[in-house]
Design brief:
Elements lengths: L4 E5 L5 E6 L7 E4 L4 H11 L5 E6 L4 H5 L10 H14 L4 E5 L6
Parallel strand pairs: 3-4, 4-5
Antiparallel strand pairs: 1-2
Length: 105
C-alpha cells in the first residue's frame, strides 16, 4: 500500500506479481502451467488486474520441461487443449498461448 501497488503475495510473503492502478488492464500475465484447474484458479485471481492471460507453451528451459510446462505441452496436445479451453470458457479476458515450432526429422 505504501507504494500504491497491487501485490499478489505467497503465504511466505514473497511478492509474485506487482502492478499498479495505472497499469490496470494493460499487462498480459504469462502463466507457466501444466494443470487446467490450477491455471484457472490463478487466472481468476488476476482477471481484474490484467488485460489477458498468455499460456507459455514455448519455453525450452529444463525447469519448464521437467514440470510438464512450456514446450513440454506441445507434446501433450490434450493437456494444452484442456488448459486453453478451461481458461477461455471461464474468463472474461482474452486468452492466448506462446508456442515454438518443433524440430522435424
Amino acid at each position: 500500500k505504501i507504494l500504491g501497488c497491487i501485490d499478489f503475495v505467497l503465504p511466505s510473503q514473497e511478492v509474485v506479481y506487482r502492478t499498479c492502478s495505472m497499469e490496470n488492464g494493460r499487462n498480459v500475465l504469462q502463466l507457466g502451467t501444466n494443470c487446467p484447474e490450477r491455471s484457472l484458479k490463478v487466472a481468476k485471481m488476476m482477471e481484474q488486474d490484467v488485460a489477458g492471460i498468455d499460456v507459455n507453451m514455448g519455453c525450452p528451459k529444463h525447469f519448464s520441461i521437467q514440470g510438464g510446462m512450456g514446450a513440454a505441452l506441445l507434446k501433450r496436445p490434450d493437456v494444452a487443449e484442456s488448459i486453453i479451453k478451461n481458461l477461455s470458457q471461464n474468463l472474461n479476458i482474452p486468452v492466448t498461448c506462446k508456442i515454438r515450432l518443433l524440430e522435424t526429422n
